[in-house]
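A student in our group prepared the protein record below, which I am reviewing. I have pasted the whole thing underneath without changing anything:
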Amino acid sequence: MMNDIGFAPRSLLYVPGSNARALEKAKALSADLVIIDLEDAVPADRKAEARSAMRAAVEAGFGDKKVAVRVNATGHGAQADDLAALAGLTLDAVVLPKVDSPQDVRALDAVPFPIFAMIETPTGVFNAQSIAADAHVAGLIAGLNDLSYELKLPDAMDRGAMALSIQMIVLAARAGQIFCFDGVYNAIDDGDGFAAEAVEGHRLGFDGKTLIHPSQVDPCNAIFSPSERDIAAAQALVAAATGGAQRHEGRMIEDMHVAAARALLERAGRA
């Protein structure tokens, strides 16, 4: 099911729909997916302006860059106008925030684009598996800022306190055979901290990470891309495989290891 959207994003950059300068700058960035934000990044009194700017930017085009739009949540008064503003546009995905259940996705049934559902509440975490199973949902996004607030965590940057929730989101995505993306890193001037969190997210099984600043794009792409060493090891494993269990470079491998190596090579574009 992952291949249904036709691409595998590593870096997903939020850009406020009301910021024309940021929208123009995003065209030159190496983000795999630009998410034009109509939700949290846009004040209530600028929602209409953001919709108009979003339409103008999408119609003008982003070259070969993939583009999504984050609409307001189901039940929010602005969502109907957001969805109406998508009419006639060509998008690669729509991001739906604060998804608590598959019923929240139903509001977007008429939208002809894959949905990335944001899991941002305890209820959403508990229902993540059923959300991931929805045929319209192509990926889950861990909305950890809102989740930390809902959990009443004293330190919003403490991912350790959200470890169970994070792992449940990854598990749900894998059970549904869809993508899962890590949450944003708020300290935009802390490059080392961002890199450490991205590495952790990669090790936890996320396919990529949502971003809030252009400086985070290139490090994100590097961290979520196979290294040359990984690629060489995968190529050697595939070449050596003869089927079934066998010894390879001091360890036992079997068909699932070969499948994982092939998947890595496909992701690296070197199948």
Notes: The chain has a mean pLDDT of 92. Strands lie at 11-16, 33-37, 66-70, 93-96, 115-119, 137-142, 179-182, 208-211, 246-248, 251-253. The chain has twelve helices and ten strands. Residues 74 and 104 are 6 Å apart (CA to CA).
